[in-house]
Structure formats: C-alpha cells, structure tokens
Amino acid sequence: MVRFTTCFALALATATFVTGALAGEATPRVNENGLRLVADRDLDTVYVDTGTRVSGYDALFVQTPTVRFKENWARDFNRQQPGTRIYPEDEEKLVSDYTELTERVFRETLEKRGFKLSEQPGEGVLVVRPDIVDLDIVAPDIQRAARVERYSQSAGEMTLALTLADGASGRPLVQVSDHKEDPRWDYMEWRTRPSNVADAKRALRGWANTLGDALEEGRW
C-alpha cells in the first residue's frame, strides 16, 4: 500500500507540475505544490521544498517515467514526409522504447556514481521520476518491409520533467524542468534507430549526472 500511495501521489504532483510548465505562463515564485523557485546553474527551472534537504536520503528509487511526444508530432511528421506514415502503434512502440531507455539510463548512471538504489519507495528513500515531455524525433527509424534512409540536420529535442519525492509520503520535494535540443548542423546526417538511441542516451546521461552532482553537492 505504501508503494501505491507514493506512486499515485507522485504521479498527480508531476502531472500538475508538467501542466503548469506547458501552459506557457510566467514562471511563478511558488508552484502548485508549494515549492519555491531557486536559481540553478545547470537547469532551466528548479523548484524546491526549502525545509527539506534531499541529499540526506539513504537510497534512491528510480520510478518508471512517463514519456509524451510533442503535441501533434505524428500528424506533423506525416504531413511533412509524404510516402511514409507513422501509425498509432508506431508511436506507442517508440513511447515504450524511450520509457525503458530513460529508466535504464538513470538507474545505470546513478548506480555507477555510487548511489544506493532501492527496489521500492519507503522510509529514507528518495523517489526519482524522470518524465520526458515534448519529445520530438526528427527522423524516426520506423521498421517497415521496405527500408527508407532518413537524413536530418538534428536528431530532435525533448524536455525533462523531473520530480524528486519523499519515498514514504510521496510528497514532492524538488521539481525540475529542463529542455535539450540536439545541435543543428549545416549538413544532413543519416539517422538510424541506433543513432537516435545514442543521441537520446547522451542527453539522458547528462541529466542523470546533473542530478548526481546536485545530490553530492547538497544543492537542494
């Protein structure tokens, strides 16, 4: 019951945070969950519970994230790429793949840095939920019977909506929003499934290391 309550509370808080972030309004000093805006050298927007230090927890639990594509991503791709269509099942498969990838990269990176990982939330455990929103893959490698080579100047972009929460109560302690865009070059590059995954892993690993730095330095 502790796990269900914690995950439900965290999901609700994250949804509220993401909705506010996507609304495009001026950044408030205090968000919907009562967390205060603080300056951070590495991340776009950071809200914290100023009464709790997340660096004091004994272990981390990386919760399975949610991944959402940019609004109308598939529709816009289908309009711009005649002859190739992304179907709902294609988008669902990509969401599943990137969900698994995000969770795995965060777990592996944090564990490699020496953080103790827990298999469930609870007392003394900090829940880490690295949701991805506004995912935009410029040239997705969709498996079809006929192979189509795709080229683009950039792999795409995505935004991290990270929530850190108390593992016993599910109360949000830190909420982060940070946008990353793959560099746009003056030339076209061949995009494949492995190259898209490699680009995404690089961005995710960067975010996981930024989280590790913040925890080790006691910034929050």
Question: What percent of the residues sit in helical stretches (DSSP H or I)?
Answer: 25-40%
Total domain units:
1
Weakly predicted, low-confidence segments:
1-9, 19-23
* Helix and strand sequence: HEEEEHHEEEEEH
So what's the overall shape? Answer: globular
Whole-number radius of gyration? Answer: 18 Å
Oligomer: single chain
Q: Note the main sheet.
A: 7 strands, mixed
What does this structure look like?
- With about 220 residues, this protein is an alpha+beta fold.
- The protein has one domain (about 1-215): Rossmann fold (3-Layer(aba) Sandwich).
- Helices cover about 35% and strands about 25% of the residues.
- The strands form 2 sheets. Strands 1, 2, 3, 4, 5, 7 and 8 form a 7-stranded mixed sheet that branches.
- Strand 1 (about 35-40) and strand 2 form a beta hairpin.
- Helix 3 (about 90-110) packs across helix 4.
- It is globular and about 55 Å long.
- The model is unreliable at about 1-10 and about 20-25 (pLDDT under 50).
How would you sum up this structure in a few lines?
By secondary structure, this protein is of the alpha+beta class. Helix content is about 35%, strand content about 25%.
Topology overview:
Blueprint: H1 2-22, E1 36-38, E2 45-48, E3 59-62, E4 67-69, H2 73-80, H3 88-112, E5 125-137, E6 150-152, E7 156-166, E8 172-181, E9 189-191, H4 193-217
Which tags fit this structure?
220 residues; seven-stranded mixed β-sheet; 9 strands; two-stranded antiparallel ribbon; Rossmann fold; 4 helices; alpha+beta; disordered N terminus
